Amino acid sequence: PSGAGAVETTVQAKLRESVSVKDFGAVGDGVADDAINVQKAIDYVEAFGGNLYFPRGVYLFGSQVTINRTYAASGSNFVGERNLIISGYGAEIRTTGAITAFDVKGGWTPNHNCLIEGFTIYHRGNTQALGGVRIIGAGLVTCRDVSVVVSGTLPAGYAAFSMENADPTNADTGCFWNLIDQCSVRPWSGAEGFCDFGVKLMGTANATTLRGNTFSGSNTHVVLMAHPGQTSAPNSVQIDGNFFEAPSTSTAISLVSSTTPYHITGTRITNNRFESLNTAVSLTGTGTTVQLPAYLSANYADSSVT
Predict the structure, then answer these.
(1) How far apart (Å, rounded) are the C-alpha atoms in residues 277 and 301?
(2) Distances (CA, A) of 192 to 95, 149, 284
(3) What is the pTM of this model?
(4) Would you state the pLDDT for residue 73?
(5) pLDDT tens-digit map of 78-126
(6) What angle is formed at CA 123 by the lines to CA 122 and CA 129, rounded to 5 degrees?
């Protein structure tokens, strides 16, 4: 085919393969608010599936950017039924206000893969930031090579990565089969303090894997817990090959609940290294049923660690 129609078809086909946020007006200069234009780019890629690329730069978000993995028919397309890659090698995300860098929202009926990779999320300057990447009832989400830079000015409950149920009262609205891989949570400098949580898994954040990450910027690096007032806590969690260090008062892995029963069955803590912190693994809770992790093996802790 030839002519204007053929050219338009070719361009559309290429856009469906790989899209830059700058195609939708994002600037990446650290001054302009890119949130609205980035959201337009994400909405486009969600409809067709494919790759969304952030060229090198600093992207400022003044409103919440959401990746929608909820299964819902939309014309001939199915949101949440398309594989997505959102890539930002060389890109830095900064936020203003009480938001996260990315919210990933989903539902129990099936999600397809969503990969978020290569970003630096700089949360040193926003004293209201709620978190880095927050996964809400979505499955098959991978965060890879994402570095979150934090400080002690962040609000209570901040987590660089978090997973939670879309409806805390419904165990079937949780997160399943997600992976945090080769990411880091680090302070800009130790003198500036640490955020509350590196990874916070709440409710039925089941079958989550934390692999090959470095944690040095949080008071509790990983916590498994129920939603406040609820009973379901994550199970079948794999924590493997991570490096936990500092501060000297921190806990690397905390399994905690104040509800009955307290389920953390099938948790595997293997091949991790703990240095320069207070406690490697802590179990606290009340209730008639406390189910311990199934397996701890091949972990190393230096002499400073309890």
Answers:
(1) 9
(2) 19, 11, 29
(3) 0.91
(4) 52
(5) 556 678 999 999 999 999 999 999 999 987 556 678 999 999 999 998 9
(6) 140
Which residue's entry shows tokens 């379901």?
Answer: 232
Regions of the chain with pLDDT less than 70: 1-17, 71-81, 108-111, 190-191, 257-263, 285-294
Distance CA 260, CA 286 (A): 7
Q: Are strands 131-136 and 100-106 parallel, antiparallel or unpaired?
A: parallel
Which stretches of 112-267 are assigned E, i.e. beta strand? 114-117, 120-122, 131-136, 141-144, 147-150, 159-164, 175-176, 179-181, 184-187, 195-202, 205-206, 209-211, 214-215, 218-225, 238-240, 243-245, 251-257, 262-263
Half-sphere exposure of 36 (CA within 13 A, CB side): 3
The residue with tokens 């594989």 is 83
| Phi, psi for residue 48 in degrees, rounded to 5 | -115, -20
**Alpha-carbon span 169 to 146, nearest angstrom:** 30
Nearest to 228 by CA among 261, 259, 204: 259
Residue 132's nearest CA partner among 45, 143, 32 is: 143
To the nearest whole number, what is the mean pLDDT of the chain?
87
What pLDDT sits at residue 79? 58
Pairing of strands 72-74, 77-79: antiparallel
What's the CA gap between 299 and 220, in Å, rounded?
18
> How confident is the model at residue 18, as a pLDDT?
80
